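Much of the work behind modern protein science is quiet bookkeeping, done one molecule at a time. The protein below has been through that process, and both of its lines are reproduced in full.


***
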Amino acid sequence: MVNLFRRYQQPLMIGFTILTIITFANFYTRTDSLDKSRSGRVAEIYGHNVTLAQAQRAGRKGDLSQQLGMNELYESLAATTERRDARENFIWNDLVLKHECELLGLEPTDDEIVDAIKAMQIFQNNGEYSPGKYAMLTQLLLSPRGFTVDDLNDVVGDGIRLKKIKALLGSTAAPSQTEIRQAVDQLDQKTQASVIRFKLSDFLAAAQVPDDEVKKLYEQRKASMNTDEMRKVKFVDLTLPPPAKPGEKPLEGKARADALTELQKKAEDFSVAMTDKNAKFEDAAAKIGAKVQETPDFPATAAPANLGESREAAAAAFKLTTAQPNSDIIETPRGYYVLQLEQVTPPRPLTFEEAKANLTDSLKHDRAQESLNLKATEVRNKIQEAMKAGKTFAAAAQELGVKAEDLPAFSQKEPKVEGTDGGEIIQVASDVKEGDVSNATPTGDGSVIIYVAKRLPIEEKEFQADKTNVAERLRFYQEIALFQEWLKLRRASAGLRTVFPT
């Protein structure tokens, strides 16, 4: 699976050729839904303009897909390019997916959308589709975003489009029996092994750092050591209130949806009022019956309590400038905020006393890690020499005064290794030959040396029991790799040109 794309390079190119032929065969002049005016445009794609409102609406559909549990759709469209902004990736990749599926004749039918909705867990009770739950949740999920059932159908349709494209790409290649056998071996084959653990905490306790070394490090780093930038904002809180009494349940269902819709309307009215060039924050708040509050100074990583500790609001606050001090409507799970920048406290250099504790800890950690690495490597090399001379792993470890622990037989399917380093041990052991000792390998809290005593044979019945699931998993990973490469190529040919960030 590591070299999946290379392995399927030839069938991948065949698949791309097929798709290209189909695309040109089905291409026709189409009236796109994208805005053709240049007013308020943020991008151009397929020769059409995209307005800010359209882009933001597409982004909200990405949020909706996550709340619907459509993780495959969101992750496929948000994380298939190298760009950092997942939301922006979703917006443009969703347009590419729609465009290409229309050209390829892979549009979902109404019946397919209905069946997909009924199969979604979020709309089910006890494994069966519930019309009542559908009615309640659609109001709760759609109304606050300004969506209708048509928007829900569009998002569900995107999930179907994605599956159709992946199936078409995946049909050009399939995992071989040899690949399936190797994958089952990796999954089921049990390993008998022993481990020597070295804990970083043991070495930290012995690490000593003189003050003069801390001062020297401070002088080296002080140019880059600063306090956090701090912000203070005024804000209007349009979120659902917490329960009035202990034990009281928060709003749910239709009552919650109605309350959020009312709050959204107030937020929109406030936002419109603030578009007037002479608008004052307090006056606009008074018109909707809201109170203006003020935060204390806070860094980007810690939203204050009176701002609901909202990460969304904190992030928005740090995008404000003195030239553009007013935020757009900030949507959170509990409602909405609108902010106005009040004060910016720029970073300043840390004094030695302010930086001393962190610098001391950093030096201690480096010293302890260095000592641990040297000790673990020394023990590993001496054990290997002793084993070449005929001693067992356990006897060699005992002579060196370290403890060798025998592990229960484990496999990827049955990972029986206890401890926080269990995952690293299983991973490292898979690359060690039978009868060999691993290098000293770092873990989350130290280092390990692993001796693989024996690989146990797999019974044929185990292979037969798992081969179908493994083949499906290989096909799934193959489809992901093919889709990612296909989307990268199709997006490159879409003529995407962003004008302003979304």
About this structure: The longest helix spans residues 352-388. DSSP finds 18 helices and 13 strands in the chain. The chain has three domains: 4-174+467-498, 190-219+352-455, 230-242+253-345. The two ends are 35 Å apart (CA to CA).
